[in-house]
Amino acid sequence: MGTPTTAAMTSTTVNSARFWERFWRSSGIQALVLFIVAYVIYGSQPQVGTTVDQLVGFYVGDRTRILIAAVLFGIAILNLMWFAAALRTTLADAGQDGWGAAATASSAARGGLFLLIITVHAALAYVIAGTGYHALTSGLNDFAWVCFVLTSFPRAMLIMAGAFGLWRAGLISNGLFAVGVAAVVLVLLGGTTWMSAGVWAVDGAYSRFVSPIIGLAWLVIVSGVLLSRSPATRAGW
């Protein structure tokens, strides 16, 4: 009578591989929640060409809020990279370690670029915007927008690794694979948003909202696929 109960309790303890595998498989959803909360706290970043007074008002006036958001964005990125690690482990168990390696590489590039963007925002809020170096403040604000556009490429690669790897492993249907391919193309288009104004500008609607929302939606879909899988027989964690 005591053995099954003991085994069940052991499988759900913090020290068990099963607990950690399920926890990290859900890290994509955790990342999504943290990104949304951090974005709400951060507010709307000044667009390219914003006046100096508006830049200073944002970065200095909302300093505390920006720095809090930076912490949450950082934690979100950590969860995003754990999501990629869980995806890589699942693909390796299914014999698709090449696509798993692609997921690891793309998440590292994506995480690095996001951390760079967060660093720029935090530095502007913490000290730079209040020093009177207005040209530097304006330049770094525009630099952050350019970096965000360039994140389109590792974001698309991460989606591609998940879509192709899970499809070749037989873990998603042809229909869901087609959705993944469409998401890759649409996110890649975000890397072409170099118009000076309008929807297709660096700070336009497609770059700011459409492309990120597509990526986050796919993140939730893949997290659901990973959570629906039984834990591997070997200890991945």
Largest sheet: none
CA gyration radius, whole angstroms: 20 Å
Average pLDDT figure: 90
How many angstroms does the end-to-end distance come to? 29 Å
What is the tally of beta strands?
A: 0
Please tell me the total number of domains.
Answer: 1
The backbone outline, from C-alpha atoms, is globular
The succession of helices and strands, N to C, reads HHHHHHHHHH
Q: What class do helices, strands and sheet pairing give? A: mainly alpha
Q: List unreliable stretches of 5+ residues.
A: 1-11
Helix content: over 70%
Number of contiguous helices:
10
The fraction of residues assigned to DSSP E strands is under 5%
Any key phrases for this structure?
237 residues; mainly alpha; 76% helix; 0% strand; disordered N terminus
Give an overview in words:
The protein is an all-alpha fold and 237 residues long. It has one domain. 76% of the residues lie in helices and 0% in strands. The protein is built from 10 helices and no strands. Helix 3 runs antiparallel to helix 10. The two termini are 29 Å apart. Mean pLDDT is 90; it is low at 1-11.
Write the SSE topology.
Blueprint: H1 2-11, H2 17-25, H3 27-42, H4 52-61, H5 63-93, H6 97-126, H7 134-150, H8 152-168, H9 174-189, H10 205-228
Helix pairs in contact: 3-5, 3-10, 5-6, 6-7, 6-8, 8-9, 8-10, 9-10
